[in-house]
Amino acid sequence: MSALPSQQARVIVTRTVTRVRARHGPASRKAAPIIAPWANSLRRNIGRLHTIVLISTNRVGSAIGEQNAVFCSLVLPRVNGLCSLFLARRTRCLPMTQSLFDQTGSRKYLVARERLSFVSAAVAEGGTVGAFCLTLAFTGARISEVLALRAESIDASNEAIVFETLKQRKRGVFRAVPVPRRLVDLVLRATQGSGRRSRSRFWPWGRTMAWKHVKRVMKSAGIADSLCKPKALRHGFAIDAGQNGVSLNIVQRWMGHARLETTAIYAGAIGEEERALARRTWRALQGALRN
Questions:
Q1: Would you say the C-alpha torsion 132, 135, 141, 146 has a positive or negative sign?
Q2: Going by fewer Cβ within 10 Å, which terminus of the chain is more open, N or C?
Q3: Average pLDDT value over all residues in the chain
Q4: Beta bridge partners of 175
Q5: Same domain, 120 and 85
Q6: What are the helix (H) ranges across 140-265?
């Protein structure tokens, strides 16, 4: 790894500190006392530093501020005396912090068998609750996005449901998710009178009430308590789509993700192709299980 020219490295360090102070105003007063020591240390040891990589995060207000630096140097301990600053204290600064498993190692998504059981339970439930659950299962939308649906959100001719992506920073970002024609008819029939004749929402519930309805249907489907949450449906939709050959950029559009890296996390789930490869390693051992 080639060394970074001293003048160029000084410019990077100076711009980093200046950017934090310029962008965050009062927040920079918290960040400056921590940024200053390693910035001064860098200027003193700049000739021995090998490279600097800057990472920017969207969260502001911590003691460190928005900018962090990762130092790749043979003299790292001498350059960075506050090593704890760049290790465990800011784990959120990693580009991909989401995971398919929770802190106890339990998966956070429904597998295909569980999704099928949920859809069957939603059909048996019927009415507006059943239609709401089916919309979640077939579109992978966020619960707040489904609650915001109105009559004009249903594109019957195109067999699609148009969602406003509510997690984007700006409003007015829409996406169309293709759905079966039978689901379109079922939603319109089940919500007849609640939103079809006006601009009111199909499901006039709050998030808490909607969450309770979904959880009740999931429990009736025999799904484990730890997975009885709308988010598990959303994760399961994305994983099923990827494992059935849908490209990541299309899954990204259906899910309403701003970054492709977020969608790529779902590629880490175990699929049939991976199971087929694993079966080859079991082949010589399976006979012992029959005894």
A1: negative
A2: C
A3: 75
A4: 163
A5: no
A6: 143-147, 181-190, 207-220, 230-243, 248-255, 260-264
pLDDT band at residue 86 using 50, 70 and 90 as cut-offs: very low
The reported pLDDT for the residue numbered 250 is 95
Identity (one letter) of the amino acid at 286? Q
Note the pLDDT tens digit of each residue in 13-24.
444 444 444 444
**Threshold 0.90, pTM exceeds:** no
pLDDT tens string 203-254: 999 999 999 999 999 999 999 999 999 999 999 999 999 999 999 999 999 9
Tokens for 143, please give them.
Answer: 């619960």
Helices (H), the chain: 6-24, 26-45, 76-79, 112-125, 127-139, 143-147, 181-190, 207-220, 230-243, 248-255, 260-264, 272-282, 286-290
Total domains, the chain: 2
Q: Which amino acid is at 154?
A: I
Domain region containing 22:
6-93
Q: Is the domain of 15 the same as that of 70?
A: yes
Tell how strand 154-155 and strand 160-164 pair up.
antiparallel
